[in-house]
Amino acid sequence: MHIIDVNSQILKENSRLAEENKKLFAKYDLHVTNFMSAPGAGKTTVLEETIKRISSKYKISVIEGDLRTSIDSERIEALNIPSYQITTGTVCHLDARMIHNALHDFKLEGSDLLFIENVGNLVCPADFELGEDLKAMVFSVVEGAEKPKKYPVMFHSVEVVLLNKIDLIPYSGVSLEELISNVKEVNPSAKIFPISCRTGEGIDEWIDWFIGKINSK
Ligand SMILES: Nc1nc2c(ncn2[C@@H]2O[C@H](COP(=O)(O)OP(=O)(O)OP(=O)(O)O)[C@@H](O)[C@H]2O)c(=O)[nH]1
Ligand SMILES: [Mg+2]
């Protein structure tokens, strides 16, 4: 009996298309970041806070991924930043083809940075390369300090982890030290920034690191 491994074929085809996207991004001299997290961890809020601080220096475009609605794209457009909403229906992640298709309509010429906000999901988005330069994860500290151990795949796949909503630590009983130690156990080389989009704590440190990253490309 010949068993076809459909999953690995899908991922192989996805990687091929991601390479095509990468070539296109290189042609436009564009730095691309893929933001991933569970629903509601604060991806759009992190984008808003980042955009507010750097949009005078960089021309930014955003691709939003959600099952339904253009709510997140509208939030980004309210900051006068062009945003393209992908709605995936029932699919729990963005893939390279969705990004490729979006680029037929969404023109990136002249942009310096592309931010992609993936579908809110702590598992699937990590498996699908999009052709990005940087994978960033937003994790809301109130989700629990043990989550990196239970859901290691995304923590393992990213270069930077933004531990968001630290303003809620006093009300949650979560230990930030334990959470950081668990992230390091799963991904020893990850850069970790405890941040609060509510108070602004840690955001400048994240931005300084991010700008260093762009400049080192
Ligand atoms: N207290 C607190 N709330 C925050 C912080 N960051 C974001 N929020 C709130 O968390 C909620 C979800 O934030 P979003 O930015 O919409 O989260 P998201 O990850 O984009 O959500 P999806 O796109 O639906 O997956 C909103 O009510 C935000 O105002 C923070 O640092 N502290
Ligand atoms: Mg969002």
Give a written overview of the molecule.
The structure is a single chain. The protein is α/β, with parallel strands linked by helices. The protein has a single domain, classed as P-loop containing nucleotide triphosphate hydrolases (Rossmann fold). It has nine helices and seven strands, in the order αβαβαβαββααβααβα. The chain has helices at 6-27, 43-54, 71-77, 96-105, 147-150, 152-157, 169-172, 176-186, 203-215; strands spanning 31-36, 60-66, 83-87, 113-117, 134-140, 160-164, 191-194. The chain has a seven-stranded parallel β-sheet, sandwiched between helices. Helix 1 (6-27) runs parallel beside helix 4. The longest helix has 22 residues, at 6-27. The model has no long low-confidence stretch (mean pLDDT 96). Magnesium ion binds next to helix 2.
In a few lines, what is going on in this structure?
By secondary structure, the chain is an alpha/beta fold. The protein is 41% helix and 18% strand. The protein has a 7-stranded parallel β-sheet with strand order 3-2-4-1-5-6-7, sandwiched between helices.
Name some characteristics of this structure:
globular; 217 residues; 18% strand; alpha/beta; binds magnesium ion; binds guanosine-5'-triphosphate
CATH topology heading: Rossmann fold
Q: Round the Cα radius of gyration to an integer and report it.
A: 17 Å
The CATH top-level class label:
Alpha Beta
**Beta-strand percent range:** 15-25%
